[in-house]
Amino acid sequence: MGKPLQSFRRYLLDRMVLRPSRVHIPHGVQTRVMMDVCGRSLECFVQRNFDDDGPADLLVLKFPGTAGRAERSSMTPVSMLDGVRGEVWTWNPPGYGRSEGRASLQSIAIAAQHFFRNVVQAGSVVPGVIWLCGNSLGCNVALHVAATMDCGDASAGLVLRNPPPLIPVVMRIARQYPLGQRVRSIAESLSDEMNAMKTAPQVSLPAVFMQSEKDELVPPSIQDELIDCYAGDRRVVKLSGLKHAGIASPEQEALIEKEIRWLWNQTGKESPTCANQ
């Protein structure tokens, strides 16, 4: 009974957390790449800020949030670094866009490892610098990848916005509804791979955290619990007045850019590699 019950609870958690979509979205100048992951297609998009065949200085892997789509990806944060040749890969996890499979937290965790390996093997940045970027739920994915993957000779860093410790976030939302306390067993069925409170202490890479002051989904007080247990050097950018999905003002963009340059300085050739976390 234990395993079927756990599977059912995780299915319910998937339904509570994930917001997959398959509607067509224009992808602009990005190039679509279809990867094979465990016999299923995984849709990714790649863009770069240079046209020649030379190597990139920086490889960025992006993990969107619970309702995010790779088609909307931009060159940020590469665009904040003058003179840096960057290549940005953004994925649609299983169940999103043209990526096959059912959207689930477990399938996302598994597919993320394959996405990382496939991009690093195909990329032009080994040795070099790799950044993992996550927005909201994508932060959990980025932390999972950072905690488990070997970057070889590459240096690595993270850029995370509004990272959610999922169990307290789900419980907080559930309390607004009748019988909300009964959700606890569902929330606590979360796998360790997607539990950022367990992966963050395992990651010692330098990181930039962006925190929306008025975040209605992941309040700063909850985000702080995760940031405080992160094992690496970190900078936190407070985005005053912004809600969870708010757009940064030019003044806030300048604050972000300052810390992005700090991260670039931290992840140079002399920085510790991902394998030496």
From TrEMBL:
Q: Which InterPro entries match?
A: AB_hydrolase_fold
Report whether Transport shows up as a keyword of the record: no
Domain of life, per lineage? Bacteria
The protein's GO terms of the molecular function aspect are: palmitoyl-(protein) hydrolase activity
Query: Keyword annotations for this protein?
Result: Hydrolase
Q: Kindly give the Gene3D superfamilies that the UniProt entry links to this protein.
A: alpha/beta hydrolase
Signal peptide range: none
**GO terms under cellular component:** membrane
This chain belongs to which protein, by name?
Answer: Alpha/beta hydrolase family protein
Q: Which organism is it from?
A: Rubripirellula reticaptiva
